[in-house]
């Protein structure tokens, strides 16, 4: 449970809000590199932290993430021409490069050849970086820019990773909380027939073993590790997930999962009630196999099956989004017969299952859809990781208001943070973490 | 005409509002029994008086109407599993019975076997009752619960009655006002060719006789009787309608109507601008015939032709609604040629005709669509029943604010209130009411 | 750039606003005459300046523009019967004539034959006038009514003009500003291949000559003339556009344009964020040819291709609108390949091009979509006509608040104002205007 004030603080992300400013201290995923694959190609409309932006690759291959409107009279740059190292507004031909500089004002004789005047006509542009198949953006003050994003999944070669993104119709936090909520796996993602893993989901294994895991949280510089212990016969089944502030996860694969790699999600706020979920799947020991890529493409895990389209959310520009085929408008294609015999939800696909419970959570009486009313929750011991994440976020946001920068944004530990799951006879989280610190071979149990 | 303050008072129905509290002193129709016909079947999402609710029948056949969200973290219970006498949340498996009690918390070892902790984890559940093919709910304070709903139409055997519900896109009151507005029948529902009653509507009869009826209102404990007198040759055509607080009607059949029974509507607020209309048609002298059931199913009267679907209204959960095929989005399928020669509106079906004028009434300059601006009305003598209903509702709502409970909610007279219409030579309402008090045979003229 | 206060003042048009009152001093286009062509035909729902209205032609051929709701209880008159010189409400049969007088109250015996009571039951009706294929309405105080609309295009015979209207999803001003923005033609409407004028647009001509025209503004009683001079070899290419307060334009044809006439637009606010654009095309020297009418009907200029349908905007009644087929929901059917080689935007049609940049302009951080944030603009010398229009509008609106009526509304000069474009060797706007004052033959260069 959270006070309404704290809930507001955690969920509001516009310019000037405490949480919005905290997000602006981190490098954030913006779009997929493949969306702006070609030089001078079609720009992508996006919104991050309530700001309307445009992503494009210029003629030299550089990617820009700039404000979505022309400095002249506010026309949408999306309809402009991406040519000769800049986007030229369709209305009067003003041109801006990836750094937001105004490089041409062709409709005004006195300005077009006057660089000094043009210098005052730039638009906001944010530093970008490409890694892990993702275009990253840093939207904070230049002098506070942390090192470029560096995670295990951004370090591996392209052949070993896969990135995707899609639209979630909720505030970022109620999506992100699902990442560090180990116990839900035993229910939401449970298969009823343990021999049937048609969906590739074998949460049944976990649930059959123990639906009430003991969760231990260990602080780290970049966030914390969440360690779930489940009984499994004479052994324990351990899962270590990583939470990297403010909203990155690293999740271990399920034990019998056909996918042999690891993965996680990042929850990038579009605005207060919509989120772009980024997913990354990767192997550290070699290329993703064709089967693994096919599994990812199938939509049973992450990403879900989506359709890329223009959507209008709120009052700003329309944005280019990957909209899941199964969504709240079609009850996530729930099959009540399937729910009786095949899996716990009757909903196909892990992300669909997640969204079915996350997108429709109870709003506050006067609040908007998409922000759950955390003042009416009843949290248990099994929610300790969620409680920890909120406590850390609140502390970081309040610290920042006092001028204390978040060290998590610069933590070198992010590059080596790793999720793991395995059986072990030890009953101690500390002992297990020692074991977990062993070399990578042990992880592939 | 009403002051804006009085209009606000009558139309706002959320928790804590004067009218909302008055509604919470009455048993209200919630869903149709047939929607939750089978045990452990799919729950139904509904909203009443701005509260998101879930209706379901459990394994023992009991019907629950409970709050729509899990006590744990607010996940929507609709996606849960209705099994073994309770709904189990899909997110973490918490389970709630029809009384809202939390009967299982399987994801937390310390809580799951601790009934004392679980006792604090219940969700709101409202008392229910089934009668007349309808699941009723009482949403007020337990100690104020009135006797269970008891009307003539809930007393007759199932074979003698039919219940239905559908979505009206307006505040409850501007729908309910149509019930007690005798004069509109002579216009809105008029057939131009008196020999053509293809629609089964014979308002032409009424209009031909006298479009300006004299209305008399007689107070009753449960509300009032509205008595309309129309000239018809040397006789008078009398219609007695019943208004039962806060929004139940009993309406006599039209004289030449093929349907031989009686009926009425109840207007249950979803929120301030949407309403679920419940209709009941019944005979007191024997089963509805196949022809009568076919007439009801045809959609020419009540209910209209509808399609059951999920709709998103406002900020809460999506709800399961019966959406009329003819609606404001398609101009109620108006046929302007038909309007010239066949009937007064060019719109097919009595309820379509009602909704065409009620759903699009003038909103206040800064008010929402769906609430008519009653400060700009010009009421006449023919509106005396409407004026009476408002006056009574205002008095009851204000009395309740002072602690005076509405006796109408407990009135035994509701069980015998009856609508009637017939020809009579008397010109006196009092004399006619004496005649009306005769046994039932007289009613079937 | 404009202060936020000034932007609010210019863009808000409801009753009681400064700009709304200014608009109410002018005759405004309401609907096309052809929409209410036949006597007693289907009424048209419209909204002007945030007021819900109904237009209809009565049995005597008179056109009424009246408030959209019945005086009795606010039912929508659209569903009523247009018959015997008045609209009869479908609910209770009350009837109103084109002057808003209540001429029948058939459902109340005491009122229906009492003209004195009925006199108090009228609805708002605004004076109308038909000219130029348009039904005009005056919504201001009766004693301030200016002379009836009198423009060159309303004076010519029907055979010489064409009028149309459609929906623009933006505030009126950002549409109207496009009219007096000569330099955008060189970009937004530019064809890349000057030999290909498949679209009938030859902005390439202009751009090729000179994309940075020198703009001169000359005050007139009715508004101002905007004079754009572009170099073209040893000559100058001159274009004189007229701005007639508050939002009428007269635009010269492009030099090589196949259409041999002239035209302009009027921007009539529906509400603060939607506009009905009226376009008029006309010749003063003779009938429009079949080819010219086909060109207009084709949708490449004005109007765009549209579909007439019912749309729901905001909180009032649905309205009957001509909705463009290419709109923000389908990215104006932009073809990025076409943008590389055929024309500057990749969007087909002049109005589509205009709307693509105007409808999606940057809203204020907390403002609604459809009103551009003018506090973040950077205006140049090329924007002098826009600056002038705003200055004049602000002055007129503020004057009116002080009781000074706008003389532009009554200016006789509006009848002779004319747009022109031609080559000339003079470099002086004054000299060119002298030349422009010559008889009409010179205009057809």
UniProtKB/TrEMBL annotation, chains A, B, C:
Name all Rieske domain ranges: 27-137
Domain of life of the source? Bacteria
Q: Write the record's keywords in alphabetical order, separated by commas.
A: 2Fe-2S, Iron, Iron-sulfur, Metal-binding, Oxidoreductase
PANTHER family in the cross-refs: BLR4922 PROTEIN, IRON-SULFUR DOMAIN CONTAINING PROTEIN
Q: Which GO terms describe its molecular function?
A: 2 iron, 2 sulfur cluster binding; metal ion binding; oxidoreductase activity
One Pfam family from the record:
LigXa_C
Q: What is this protein called?
A: Rieske 2Fe-2S domain-containing protein
Annotated InterPro entries: Cholesterol_7-desaturase (IPR050584), LigXa_C (IPR045623), Rieske_2Fe-2S (IPR017941), Rieske_2Fe-2S_sf (IPR036922)
């Amino acid at each position: 449970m959270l006070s309404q004030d704290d809930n507001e603080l955690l969920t509001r992300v516009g310019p000037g809000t405490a949480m919005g400013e905290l997000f602006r201290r981190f490098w954030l995923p913006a779009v997929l590199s493949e969306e702006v694959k070609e030089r001078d190609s079609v720009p992508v409309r996006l919104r991050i932290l309530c700001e309307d932006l445009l992503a494009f690759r210029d003629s030299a291959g550089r990617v820009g993430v700039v404000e979505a409107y022309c400095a002249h009279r506010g026309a949408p740059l999306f309809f402009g021409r991406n040519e000769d190292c800049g986007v030229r507004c369709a209305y009067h031909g003003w041109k801006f490069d990836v750094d937001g500089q105004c490089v041409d004002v062709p409709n005004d004789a006195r300005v077009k050849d006057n660089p000094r005047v043009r210098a005052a006509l730039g638009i906001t542009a944010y530093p970008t970086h490409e890694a892990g198949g993702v275009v990253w953006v840093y939207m904070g003050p230049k002098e506070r820019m942390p090192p470029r994003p560096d995670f295990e999944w951004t370090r591996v070669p392209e052949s070993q990773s896969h990135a995707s993104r899609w639209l979630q119709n909720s505030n970022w936090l109620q999506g992100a909380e699902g990442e560090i909520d180990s116990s839900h796996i035993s229910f939401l993602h449970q298969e009823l027939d343990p021999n049937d893993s048609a969906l590739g989901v074998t949460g049944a294994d976990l649930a059959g073993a123990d639906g009430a895991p003991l969760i231990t949280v260990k602080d780290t510089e970049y966030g914390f590790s969440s360690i779930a212990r489940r009984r499994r016969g004479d052994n324990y089944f351990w899962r270590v997930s990583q939470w990297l502030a403010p909203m990155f996860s690293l999740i271990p694969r399920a034990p019998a999962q056909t996918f042999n790699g690891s993965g996680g999600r990042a929850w990038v706020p579009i605005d207060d009630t919509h989120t772009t979920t980024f997913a990354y799947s990767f192997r550290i020991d070699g290329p993703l196999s064709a089967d693994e890529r096919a599994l990812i493409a199938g939509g049973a895990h992450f990403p879900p099956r989506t359709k890329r389209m223009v959507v209008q959310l709120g009052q700003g520009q329309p944005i280019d989004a990957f909209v899941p085929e199964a969504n709240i408008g079609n009850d996530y294609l729930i099959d009540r017969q399937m729910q009786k015999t095949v899996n716990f939800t009757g909903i196909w696909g892990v992300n669909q299952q997640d969204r079915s419970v996350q997108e429709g959570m109870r709003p506050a009486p006067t609040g908007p859809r998409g922000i759950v009313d955390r003042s009416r929750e009843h949290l248990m011991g099994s929610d300790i990781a969620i409680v920890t994440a909120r406590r850390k976020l609140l502390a970081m946001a309040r610290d920042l208001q006092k001028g204390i920068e978040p060290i998590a944004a610069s933590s070198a530990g992010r590059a080596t943070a790793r999720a793991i799951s395995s059986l072990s006879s030890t009953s101690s989280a500390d002992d297990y973490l020692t074991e977990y610190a062993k070399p990578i071979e042990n992880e592939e149990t």
